[in-house]
Amino acid sequence: MNEALPDVPEVRVVGLPQLTSGFDLVERLDLPMHLKVHGPLDPLGGEQLAQLAESINLKGRGGAGFPFHKKLRSVAESAIKRGVRPVVVVNGSEDEPACRKDTVLINRAPHLILDGALLCAEALGARTLVIGVTRESTQRSMEAALAERGLSNSRRSALRAWVQRNPVRMVTGAAASLIRSVDGGPAIPPGRKISASQSGVGGAPTLLSNAETFAQLAIAARIGPERYGNTGLYDEPGTVMLTVSGAVARPMVIEVPTGVPLRYVLQLAGAPPVPQGVLTGGYHGKWIDAATVNEAIVSRNSLDAVGGSLGAGAILPISQDTCPLGESLRVAQWLAEESAGQCGPCYLGLPAAARGMEDILNGGGPAALEALKQVAKNVKRRGACSHPDGSAMFLESTIKAFTDDLAAHVLGNGCGRPVEGVLPLFEGGRAPTGVPGGGEPEESGASRQKIYVDWTLCRGHGLCADILPEVFELGADGFPTVAQAQVPRYAEAKALRAVRRCPALALRLEEDTRGQAPSRNLPVLSQGRGRRALGR
Fold this sequence. Notes:
This protein has 536 residues and is α/β, with parallel strands linked by helices. 37% of the residues lie in helices and 12% in strands. It has a 6-stranded mixed beta sheet, sandwiched between helices. Strands 4-3-2-5 form a 4-stranded parallel beta sheet, sandwiched between helices. Strands 12-11-13 form a 3-stranded antiparallel beta sheet, covered by helices on one side. Helix 12 runs antiparallel to helix 15. It is globular. Belongs to the complex I 51 kDa subunit family.
């Protein structure tokens, strides 16, 4: 079963380590130990760096998988065209409860990440480097690494570098959210989509990628593309960092060469011999069934080919003893609560999708299934960020992967299995208000309040649906479709306003004091030359 997973869980490696070199020697590689393990790193010219990234087919390891060399060249071209210096941003905002690979790298090998980021800053002529994090442990480790290199946010520094701390929220990890917070705003996506390569931090072209991507670049720059290509697959060389949790005996972060069978990775973590399904790519990822697991290998192309996703590198099997739709409902409800609450597809669509999944489990029949499919379809490609798209992909994958269980719930009396809660969701230790480097009060996470409708008083005025659309929808008769519901934290103020403004005084708000089931959630560890643009 799923054990509690700290910021730095057990780390394993298959084959020769690259990113995890030295982990068997010390808990954290400070600068002297980093240089002993990895050796010095010579700077590379701009176009030479881009060619290196292209030759090893380096793609972003944060989920989207965009080719790094294209991003690098796009930032350089924009900076040259506009005559401004670009900015480099490392995204270490790993805010899925089931993901820890970037957190492990920041805590244990921060200088490897900085190597890659500084190579890019030198090549682009950048004078600003920002590292975005959300946890206390990653903030401490990266700030210590900057100090070990003599880097600071001083205006007199040739390169200004600092750590930007934001709250732990799913949407904080979006590139636009991080850029907005660096500029002094809240860590949520803006209302319009703009390419960071064209206009990012302070309106300057910004090279933004996740922590593992920069670390992979640093490895390739040291050993060269030929040696780098000797590990892993021909078309996807190198290693991949995975976080394996869910129904496993030993949750872990593991570095594996591409091409390793997925079933072998699951065996290392102690997954069931025949899992009912495996969620690949995290909570914006896709399910694959037991038969497909035997066909899959660890690579972006392979997982895509069998209907899965490498995504953020999270792998979560579930056993035959739990209800897969019930497990997915918990995730769908969490995804709805993690919304930024600022655009319809998120704050209306995702709660509606979660209610649709709940209706299926409660015997809503074929109509409930069709309603869920329609909601998932409607939220895609309509949000201010990728959160609704990823959430819809997860829901659609659930429907596709577990057809037998779906039929049992839609056409019968259910599958008869309990929900064990093996998929980790809620984290302790959210970032406090006013954290160093910026931030905002935490408004997401588990619901603390529940709102009730008194049907003896309700007259169908409909103000509740106008004020609190996250919770209330009006049925064909003009009355709310629910009698009681959890209130997302970000919507608690609106819930109170709905109660106060109800003309019939038919709403009441109460603290949800029900005891919590024993959880398998993931707690936060409690316990630190001239520059040129490409081709110029």
